[in-house]
Design brief:
Length: 192
């Protein structure tokens, strides 16, 4: 009888578990730098552009808001570099073409990618005309999708290995008769 550690069933079970864990570690280790704020006019927030492997000097700015009885919303978004005080202003006009279809609420969404050097920044809306609070998402462009897809594929492969391990014939542990033969069994001698 062979070892249970060298059987196909245990290889598929434990190998699948190892592949799932490694895939999860890859997803967790992916370079991902994202933050979401709910801000109003002149509320300042900080942002840092990372200078590490897998990150690029670009930022994706995502806006989501509910207009207040206005067809068009006008936004002036200011990005200020903290050490040089250089400013980048992004003027945005959101209207019905940016509207998400919903049952009872009107929501506008907009996204834009800007080139932005590495550094520390302060961001704020200088003008918000036609809306109250704005949901602001800042995401530094990175290789995170490659890492997440790779880790996700490994998780799928690990799940398939576990299912195949379940379907492989045989038992995971040896039966009781095989165990008795392998380990030995001594009957107590009876006195007559």
């Amino acid at each position: 009888m062979g070892s249970i550690w060298l059987s196909k069933k245990s290889f598929l079970y434990f190998g699948g578990l190892a592949v799932i864990l490694i895939g999860g570690l890859i997803v967790v280790a992916s370079p991902y730098h994202y933050i979401n704020y709910s801000v109003g006019e002149n509320e300042r927030r900080v942002w840092t552009m990372y200078d590490e492997s897998g990150y690029y000097p670009q930022i994706e700015i995502s806006i989501s808001l509910r207009p207040s009885n206005e067809t068009y919303v006008y936004l002036d978004f200011v990005i200020e570099e903290n050490s040089t005080l250089d400013t980048t202003v992004l003027n945005m006009t959101l209207g019905p073409e940016h509207q998400l279809s919903g049952p009872e609420t009107t929501i506008y969404e907009y996204s834009e990618i800007l080139d932005l050097p590495i550094g520390n920044y302060t961001v704020h809306f200088d003008k918000v005309d036609g809306a109250g609070n704005v949901d602001l998402g800042l995401n530094q462009i990175s290789d995170s999708r490659i890492w997440i897809v790779t880790g996700g594929m490994m998780n799928i492969i690990g799940i398939i290995m576990g299912i195949l391990g379940y379907l492989v014939p045989g038992s995971f542990l040896p039966s009781d008769t095989d165990t008795i033969v392998e380990w030995g069994y001594d009957e107590e001698e009876t006195k007559q």
